[in-house]
Design brief:
Elements (H helix, E strand, L loop, with lengths): L1 H22 L21 E2 L2 E2 L3 H11 L4 H15 L7 E3 L5 E3 L2 H6 L6 H20 L4 E6 L2 H4 L15 H11 L7 H7 L15 H15 L11 E7 L2 H6 L7 E6 L6 E5 L6 H9 L8 E6 L7 E6 L7 H5 L4 E6 L12 E8 L27 E2 L5 E6 L2 E7 L11 E7 L2 E7 L5 H6 L11 E6 L7 E9 L2 E10 L1
Parallel strand pairs: 5-12, 10-11, 10-12, 13-20
Antiparallel strand pairs: 1-2, 3-4, 6-7, 8-9, 9-11, 14-15, 15-18, 16-17, 16-19, 19-20
Helix pairs in contact: 5-7
Length: 488
């Protein structure tokens, strides 16, 4: 009897182990369910050698294709999230069926506070971009989109305690101090939150929230626009929310969506080129598929006033597309945190939209923009600091200068000026007060061996600028000798 029991036990164990392989031909393809590229089957040989990582890569490939994987994940997430109320699959399960991104918790409690140098860098970077756009005859507005938790915090779990100050409030305050034109979208959303502006089970606003936000953006730009105030809408429970999909990849709860009855001007896509079904392509861009939406360009068939828009955006910008397109003769939407300001033409309105949880990215990398030349008085420093290393990259588009300060404290107004003295005369440029982490690492400066406060500037190559220059970096009343650079 004992022997028979062991045999039965072994057989059952072997059947359980073999079940995934046996069921694989009959199960749904996980590629069609999960919003990511699954691991590929590994090669036995790589670069003419035996692939020593084959077993690890095979495990990743197999795990991604386990039959009924999505169903198992959904069941596990339900037990962990809905029953135990613990963060799971990067999702916070809130009250009354509301879901939040796990990263929102850090902003909500202010446990991811940006440094003073980062806040200052973000604000000054925005002010320099605004200066550039306005000098070319356009309008500029910064749109920091609040996390859902910042608007509907009452649905966050009780274990999360909201802090009065966080990155959003600090960046907006400093941006206002340096003259940046911005929309306090958090205030706008809170003033209208009784209308339900965000999806309960998605991290983004719904179309009702987007319409209110659109009008606030256009008001912030200070340009005449359609308000769609009389547009009627219907509510349909057909929105497959992103957070719900993370929790329940096999299928969860549909969310409400607000569909407005608006007659938009006809338009065409100039990029991507060759689009035959404009409406189908627009709906694809507005979905969460995120297929080829890094760059979108449009041309109106009805608006003929020469108006132009450039919008740096993230996923929140999807719902704004038809509204913004409808108000401009030509529009460009670039999914980026580092706008190419040099490419923005004359008389072009610039909307810079970025969600609260990504605000730190503004200070992580300088936008592509030529540094403005300043009066020589800006480079006067009453104190002399220690010498610093200035890196000079001569590129086809210009000369990039960057480096780091020996201390991380923000002094004075935090602005940074670069003085060049040489055969081509004396020149003073204002740099972005941004520490270029990636570029510094390429120069062999390891993370942690620097202050985290730096500068970055691109100088436009002009006739007479080439040659050797002594360089001085000035910030907060202190001048730092930077040695000699050669502009080719």
């Amino acid at each position: 009897m004992k022997k028979s029991f062991k045999i039965v036990y072994i057989v059952i164990f072997m059947l359980i182990c073999a079940a995934p392989l046996a069921l694989m031909p009959f199960a749904k393809k996980n590629e069609n369910i999960e919003k990511r590229e699954l691991a590929k089957f590994p090669k036995y040989m790589e670069n003419g050698r035996l692939n020593v990582d084959f077993s690890t890569q095979f495990e990743s490939w197999f795990n991604d294709r386990i039959p009924y994987r999505s169903e198992l994940l959904s069941a596990a997430n339900y037990m962990k999230g809905e029953t135990l109320h613990a963060p799971t699959s990067n999702v916070i399960v809130g009250k009354d069926g509301w879901l939040f991104y796990e990263s929102e918790g850090a902003d909500y409690m202010n446990t991811n506070a940006m440094t003073d140098a980062q806040v200052n860098a973000a604000a000054i970077a925005l002010s320099l971009m605004q200066e550039n756009i306005e000098a070319k005859g356009g309008h500029f507005v910064f749109v920091p989109m609040p996390n859902k938790a910042s608007v509907y915090g009452e649905y966050m779990p009780s274990c999360y305690t909201k802090d009065r100050i966080n990155n959003l409030s600090r960046v907006m305050t400093r941006a206002g101090e340096v003259g940046v034109n911005y929309v306090d979208m958090q205030a706008v959303m809170k003033a209208n939150k009784d209308k339900t502006l965000y999806h309960r089970r998605d991290s983004h606003w719904n179309y009702q929230g987007a319409l209110i936000g659109y009008n606030a953006i256009m008001d912030g730009l200070g340009v005449e626009h359609k308000t769609y105030a009389d547009a009627t809408y219907t509510v349909e429970k057909n929105w497959r929310a992103d957070l719900d999909k993370l929790l329940y990849p096999a299928g969860g709860v549909m969310d409400d969506q607000y569909y407005y009855n608006i007659s938009y001007e006809q338009f065409m896509f100039t990029y991507p080129a060759g689009v035959r079904d404009t409406q189908a392509q627009l709906e694809n861009f507005m979905s969460d598929k995120e297929e080829g939406d890094d760059l979108i360009r449009t041309k109106s068939r009805g608006v003929k006033d020469g108006s132009k828009l450039y919008m740096a955006r993230d996923s929140f910008g999807r719902a704004l597309l038809p509204l913004m397109i409808d108000n401009y003769e030509s529009a460009e939407f670039k999914r980026t945190d580092t706008p190419d300001v040099n490419s923005i033409g004359e008389n072009t309105d610039f909307v810079y939209e970025i969600v609260e949880r990504n605000l730190h990215r503004i200070a992580d990398k300088a936008p592509f923009m030529y540094a403005p030349e300043r009066d020589s008085s800006k480079a006067e420093g009453s104190n002399t600091g220690e010498s610093i290393k200035v890196y000079c990259d001569n590129e086809g588009y210009g000369v990039r200068l960057y480096g780091a300060f020996p201390d991380s404290k923000v002094t004075g107004d935090g602005r940074v000026y670069i003085q060049l003295s040489g055969a081509g005369g004396n020149h003073v440029y204002e740099a972005f007060p941004i520490y270029e982490k990636d570029l510094m690492q390429k120069q062999g400066v390891e993370e942690g061996s620097d202050s985290g406060r730096g500068f970055s500037a691109i100088l436009q190559k002009t006739e007479g600028l080439s040659g050797s220059y002594d360089i001085t970096i000035v910030s907060g009343g202190t001048s730092y000798p930077g040695g000699t650079i050669v502009v080719e």
